[in-house]
Design goal:
The strands form 3 sheets. The chain has a 6-stranded mixed sheet. Strands 1-3-2 form a 3-stranded antiparallel sheet. It contains 5 helices and 11 strands; from the N terminus they run αβαβββββαβααββββ.
Amino acid sequence: AVDLVLSCQPDVVCLNEILGSIHREKIKERFRRAGYIGFAWGAAERRQKSLDIGTILITKYKSEPIFFTIPYYDHIGGGGGACALYLPEENITIIGFHLGLRRKLRESQLTHLARFIKTQKELNRQVIAMGDCNTSFKDFSKRVLFTELKLQDVTLKSFPNNWLKIIPSIEKKLDHILVDEVYNITDKKTLSGKSDHLLLYCQVAKKPI
């Protein structure tokens, strides 16, 4: 997965379902060697330390970690971490998250996410949020806060990856990049690697003033 991401040379990366005790430092070192300098990590808070599954944000830009978390259930499927970075030179807050499988939990997690995005926008910062949502955008669009926050959805069918595609009709749009309205989305695509999800990639450009 790391090789696939590096082949795209993105400015910002969000990786979900990372085993912190095993892979986090190795992944950070790989990206450091490729010129990335900013990192944030957020693991789901669970009693079982062996389940330190988390989300990592990585960027080429100078950045400052911001504390951000969401509610979790204490078992697999209860969410996989959240974190945030502020890029002062770009005035952008980047958010990474992995939502849970159950709808009731996701609703609570989305509420926390929306409130955090609102606080960042009240600081006159642009926002880009991304991660495995375990749901389509239909759930998002029902939330008034997301409508008010005017985020654009970048999504494509990303699950399951090719080696799991037994019945094409079950392909779902579970991964999303939520982009502030001040940006134009100039490209989006998926790429296949060694994961149960496809890699979701997009390019954005600031809209002319």
